[in-house]
């Protein structure tokens, strides 16, 4: 097993700022926009983006939620590992809002497919966009592409892309791990 | 990652503390789901569940059916009153015929103790016991503990009193197993004739004075007198039962601490509890019903995840 650093903490910081700016460009003021982190690992990313938006660009009162997709996955009873759920926290109205999904890695697209179904339980959004830190562009199973993208990676299938966050793993870094 | 240690939910006796924790954790998520504008998840869309009720039920049956539908399972209902059981078909034949129609899971209520266990040995489907005679009613005990946990933070170390017809109550037995497993203290109270002789061997204490027992407890679970299971008379009259073991507002207000009142339903108002107690702030009877759907969703979801394709 070998691993190499794809992004270090400085590069991640630059990317987070760029993504935040791109969001502001399309959603000035964030009045009708809600940000939803996809459980489990998209939540760290969403928290960081919001931190940048609030602290660096002075945007206040951003609606921020967390969506768990476990019960909407298409591999229930198909994988050997049982699926464990996480918390969903959406305490605002999604109806007629512009929703921005945030996840760390876009791989097969199946999680996002599940998230698109899950969010419907909370209403009918005006639009849904997707923001990811890493886009593994040659590994898609479904026609799903990010609207805002940190870095494209051409990792092959037996490689794993792992995102570390300061809050959880003690450092900001993205690794490509090959078996 | 965790999964249940069992393939069927036949009784609390067969569960571990870990299983109960897992069911509760999963139920927390489903409780959030059933409070959404759209209360449905697609997890079980390729699972078919048969609800076989050989004994009357409103709450449990509705609760199971709602839980199944909110998980997107296909549901078929069967009640003994309107079926070929009346024509002399055996239990295994009935169930095998239903399974031949490709059913993955069976939820069964039956008047005979052990019916679920018997079935699980003879048919190829995941079985959930929704009450087997005077034996066990595991989902009721789980939702009772879950409701205590919700109100008091945890079950461990809490003093739980079970009042009434302990002898005929599957709710009492399942509750004793579940509460013991979670480290609660349990006392039972009722007419001596309705308390099984060796009940202490389950690790519970007996008190025949209701007031004393109520002063001791944090939670009182008031059971119904199951007249339909009594062939002989166990106490002189309903009036006398109510006088000695009925909970009224006056008694409730005279207690030193504010206890929680539970009832598995159906309530015989004016017998085991009076209306003003059942409708008081201290009663969590309707919370129990709401939690029942979440608990059953969790149990069905976790068992279904063990059915291999």
List the helices and strands and how they pair.
The complex is a heterodimer of chains A (about 180) and B (about 300).
Chain A: E1 2-7, H1 9-26, E2 33-38, H2 42-57, E3 63-67, E4 98-106, H3 110-119, E5 127-136, E6 148-153, E7 159-164, H4 166-169, E8 173-178
Helix pairs in contact in A: 1-2
Chain B: H1 17-33, E1 48-53, H2 59-70, E2 74-79, H3 91-99, E3 105-110, H4 115-122, E4 126-132, H5 138-152, E5 159-163, H6 170-181, E6 185-189, E7 205-207, H7 210-216, E8 219-222, H8 238-245, H9 249-254, E9 260-262, H10 275-278, H11 285-304
Parallel strand pairs in B: 1-2, 1-3, 3-4, 5-6, 5-8, 6-7, 8-9
Helix pairs in contact in B: 1-11, 2-11, 5-6, 5-11
Task: Outline the structure in words.
- The complex is a heterodimer of chains A (179) and B (309).
- Chain A is an alpha/beta fold and 179 residues long.
- Chain A has one domain (2-178): 3-Layer(aba) Sandwich (Rossmann fold).
- Chain A has four helices and eight strands.
- In chain A, helix 2 (42-57) links the parallel strand 2 and strand 3.
- The longest helix of chain A is centred in the N-terminal third of the chain and has 18 residues, at 9-26.
- By secondary structure, chain B is α/β, with parallel strands linked by helices.
- Chain B has two domains: 12-136 and 289-304, Rossmann fold (3-Layer(aba) Sandwich); 138-288, Rossmann fold (3-Layer(aba) Sandwich).
- In chain B, 38% of the residues lie in helices and 15% in strands.
- Chain B is built from eleven helices and nine strands.
- The mean pLDDT of chain B is 93.
- Chains A and B meet through loops of A and helix 1 and helix 11 of B.
């Amino acid at each position: 097993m070998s691993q190499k650093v794809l992004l270090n903490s400085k590069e991640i910081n630059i990317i987070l700022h760029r993504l935040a700016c791109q969001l502001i460009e399309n959603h000035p003021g964030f009045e009708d926009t809600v940000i939803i982190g996809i459980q489990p690992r998209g939540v760290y990313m969403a928290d960081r983006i919001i931190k940048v938006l609030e602290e660096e660009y002075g945007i206040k009162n951003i609606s921020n939620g967390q969506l768990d997709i476990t019960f909407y996955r298409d591999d229930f009873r198909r994988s050997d590992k049982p699926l464990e759920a996480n918390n969903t926290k959406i305490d605002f109205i999604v109806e007629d809002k512009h929703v921005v999904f945030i996840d760390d890695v876009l791989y097969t697209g199946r999680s996002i497919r599940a998230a698109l179904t899950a969010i419907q339980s909370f209403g009918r959004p005006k639009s849904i966009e997707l923001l990811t830190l890493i886009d593994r562009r040659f590994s898609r199973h479904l026609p799903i592409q990010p609207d805002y993208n940190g870095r494209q990676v051409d990792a092959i299938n037996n490689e794993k892309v792992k995102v570390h966050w300061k809050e959880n793993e003690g450092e900001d870094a993205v690794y490509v791990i090959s078996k | 990652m965790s999964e249940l240690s069992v393939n069927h939910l036949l009784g609390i006796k067969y569960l571990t503390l870990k299983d109960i924790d897992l069911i509760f954790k999963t139920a927390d998520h489903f409780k959030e789901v059933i409070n959404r504008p759209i209360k449905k998840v697609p997890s079980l869309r390729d699972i078919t569940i048969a609800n076989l009720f050989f004994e009357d039920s409103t709450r449990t049956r509705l609760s199971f059916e709602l839980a199944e539908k909110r998980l997107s399972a296909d549901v078929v209902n069967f009640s003994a009153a309107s079926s070929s059981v009346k024509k002399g078909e055996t239990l295994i034949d009935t169930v095998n015929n239903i399974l031949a129609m490709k059913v993955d899971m069976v939820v069964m209520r039956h008047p005979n103790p052990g019916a679920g266990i018997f079935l699980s040995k003879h048919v190829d489907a995941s079985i959930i016991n929704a009450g087997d005679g005077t034996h066990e009613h595991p989902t009721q005990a789980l939702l009772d503990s879950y409701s205590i946990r919700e109100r008091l933070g945890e079950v461990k170390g809490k003093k739980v009193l079970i009042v009434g017809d302990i002898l005929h109550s599957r709710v009492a037995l399942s509750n004793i197993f579940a509460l013991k497993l979670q480290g609660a203290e349990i006392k039972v109270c009722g007419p001596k004739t309705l308390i099984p002789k060796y009940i202490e061997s389950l690790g519970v204490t007996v008190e025949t004075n209701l007031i004393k027992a109520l002063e001791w407890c944090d939670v009182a679970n008031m059971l119904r007198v199951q007249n339909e299971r009594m062939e002989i008379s166990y106490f002189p009259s309903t009036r006398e039962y109510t006088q000695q073991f009925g909970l009224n507002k006056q008694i409730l207000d005279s207690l030193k601490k504010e206890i929680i009142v539970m009832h598995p339903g159906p309530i015989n108002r004016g017998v085991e509890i009076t209306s003003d107690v059942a409708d008081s702030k201290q009663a969590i009877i309707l919370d129990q019903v709401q939690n029942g759907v979440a608990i059953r969703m969790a149990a069905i979801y976790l068992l279904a995840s063990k059915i291999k394709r």
